């Protein structure tokens, strides 16, 4: 079997490495002419780390990122809603890792360069069209100078992100991504270690949230590369998007100053953290309504192309990585029936991931903060004496650990 992949992001490159491991020929076509160091922090949850370990990448990722040992969910007033260990500290046999997206991407690029033939990854090749015949696919990619590349294979996988051209080819009437009405600002900067240096602090409901966590070593022994994100509701879900969703649109700190006053974060000065960040970006948080099918014959979708999701719950990269392993496994098992392999991949993954997309629309595990703030809204200063009187542990556990199960990373699902 010969596999063509449109898109050399986290999902596309991970898939290429799983195909290579299965002995299947693969070629990846990536739109950008040059890979740039874009993006900020990404969380690799234990199911993603365990999957990446199958292609020998846990060690390099563990070496460059930060192990998350603890997760704190809090109200805007600084009161704890959930305080629990994560990763190895929570009894998993692999760590949970936070790292810069560009560093994770580089680990994948290096592995592709080491393990696959030189022509396996073609840059400056934007997917344009695909034709299916009885015996295969012919895909056309366009270079920035206007010339085209034609590639033939047995299957085509669209791993080309939230603005997927392959998805558009399969669903020409779908239209643009759907804006949640939430604006997301994200940045990272060198910053003094907070608490044990392995904690994620996530304050506020989905309509007004500030989250920060370290994603790498700092410039001095006392500092770390600190990633932060701020979310604010600006419109109702489905409102027209304020500009294109792009990962490199720069934003200004002044916009955030009035918003940051709403948060009590005892451990650090979050306004100073934002002000110290030389460049940061805004991003209208978007997803798409779930599809009922990703696969048409010999063409399918993977990662954000198949199921873009809000980042609540930190599952965007994880679900792309899980897709990558699954599709290579089905193609190896059904190498004489490429269309059957893509159908089997969809059968395994589509319903599960669509449930994660739906869960993230209400905040994923972080919905527990929304619930507590709602229930505490009439208390003086919205402050409570005892969280148990507001929302008992069993209910909080059902939200947080219920989400882990839905997304496939509850501890017993990974044994
Ligand atoms: C530059 C960049 C920065 C990002 N930064 C963050 C971040 O800071 N935080 C976060 O949570 N998520 C970020 N993401 C998204 C995150 O990587 C994904 O949500 C997740 O990893 C799923 O991966 P994916 O491979 O499905 O999609 P992506 O990682 O988005 O990869 C899609 C790839 O397809 C390429 N592509 C697009 N159109 C075409 C086409 N027509 N033909 C061929 N190739 C095409 C893109 O250039 C990209 O390399 C970023 C994505 C990109 C591309």
Number of strands: 19
Question: What's the CATH class label of the domain at 2-38 and 102-176 and 288-361?
Answer: Alpha Beta
**What do we call the CATH homologous superfamily of the domain at 2-38 and 102-176 and 288-361?**
FAD/NAD(P)-binding domain
The total count of helices amounts to 12
Give the rounded overall mean pLDDT: 95
Can you walk me through this structure?
The protein has 415 residues and is α/β, with parallel strands linked by helices. The chain has a domain at 2-38 and 102-176 and 288-361: FAD/NAD(P)-binding domain, CATH 3.50.50. The protein is built from twelve helices and 19 strands. The protein has helices at 10-21, 46-53, 58-64, 101-115, 165-170, 253-260, 270-275, 316-333, 338-361, 367-375, 387-390, 393-407, and strands at 2-6, 25-29, 41-44, 66-68, 70-74, 80-85, 96-100, 121-122, 126-132, 137-142, 148-153, 155-158, 178-192, 199-203, 208-217, 223-233, 250-251, 280-287, 299-301. The strands form four sheets. The protein has an eight-stranded mixed sheet with strand order 6-5-14-15-16-13-18-17, sandwiched between helices. A hairpin with a 4-residue loop joins strand 9 (126-132) and strand 10. Helix 2 (46-53) packs parallel to helix 8 (316-333) and helix 8 packs antiparallel against helix 9. The protein is globular and about 70 Å long. The protein starts with a strand and ends in an 8-residue tail after the last helix. It binds flavin-adenine dinucleotide (FAD). Residues 6-12, 29-32, 38-40, 42, 101, 126-127, 159-161, 163, 165, 186, 247, 303-305, 311, 316-317, 320 line the site of flavin-adenine dinucleotide.
């Amino acid at each position: 079997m010969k596999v063509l992949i449109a898109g050399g992001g986290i999902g596309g490159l991970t898939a290429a490495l799983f195909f290579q491991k299965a002995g299947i020929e693969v070629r990846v076509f990536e739109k950008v002419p040059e890979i740039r160091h874009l993006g900020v922090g990404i969380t690799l949850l234990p199911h993603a780390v365990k999957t990446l370990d199958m292609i020998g990448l846990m060690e390099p990722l563990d070496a460059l990122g930060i192990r998350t040992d603890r997760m704190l969910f809090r109200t805007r007033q600084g009161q704890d809603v959930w305080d629990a260990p994560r990763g190895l500290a929570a009894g998993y046999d692999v760590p949970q890792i936070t790292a810069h997206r560009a560093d994770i991407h580089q680990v994948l690029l290096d592995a592709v360069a080491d393990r696959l033939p030189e022509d396996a990854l073609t840059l400056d090749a934007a997917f344009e069209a695909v034709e299916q015949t009885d015996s295969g696919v012919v895909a056309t990619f366009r270079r920035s100078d206007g010339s085209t590349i034609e590639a033939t294979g047995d299957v085509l996988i669209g791993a080309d992100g939230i603005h997927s051209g392959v998805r558009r080819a399969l669903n020409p009437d779908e239209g643009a991504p759907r804006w949640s009405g939430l604006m997301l600002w994200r940045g990272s900067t060198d910053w003094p270690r907070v608490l044990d240096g392995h904690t994620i602090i996530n304050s506020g409901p989905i309509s007004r949230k500030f989250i920060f966590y370290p994603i790498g070593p700092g410039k001095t022994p006392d500092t770390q590369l600190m990633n932060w994100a701020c979310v604010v509701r600006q419109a109702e879900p489905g409102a027209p998007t304020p500009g294109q969703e792009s990962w490199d649109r720069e934003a200004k700190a002044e916009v955030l100053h009035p918003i940051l006053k709403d948060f009590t974060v005892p451990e650090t000065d979050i306004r100073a953290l934002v002000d110290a960040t030389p460049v940061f970006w805004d991003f209208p948080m978007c997803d798409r309504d779930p599809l009922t099918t990703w696969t048409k014959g010999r063409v399918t979708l993977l990662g954000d192309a198949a199921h873009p999701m809000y980042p609540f719950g930190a599952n965007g990269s994880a679900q792309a990585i899980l897709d990558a392993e699954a599709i290579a496994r089905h193609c190896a098992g059904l190498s004489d029936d490429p269309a059957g392999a893509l159908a089997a991949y969809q059968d395994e993954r589509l319903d599960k991931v669509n449930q994660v997309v739906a869960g993230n629309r209400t905040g994923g595990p972080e919905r527990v903060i929304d619930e507590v703030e709602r229930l505490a809204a009439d208390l003086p200063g919205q402050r409570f004496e005892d969280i148990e009187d507001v929302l008992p542990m069993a209910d909080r556990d059902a939200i947080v650990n219920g989400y882990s199960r839905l997304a496939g990373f509850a501890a017993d699902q990974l044994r």
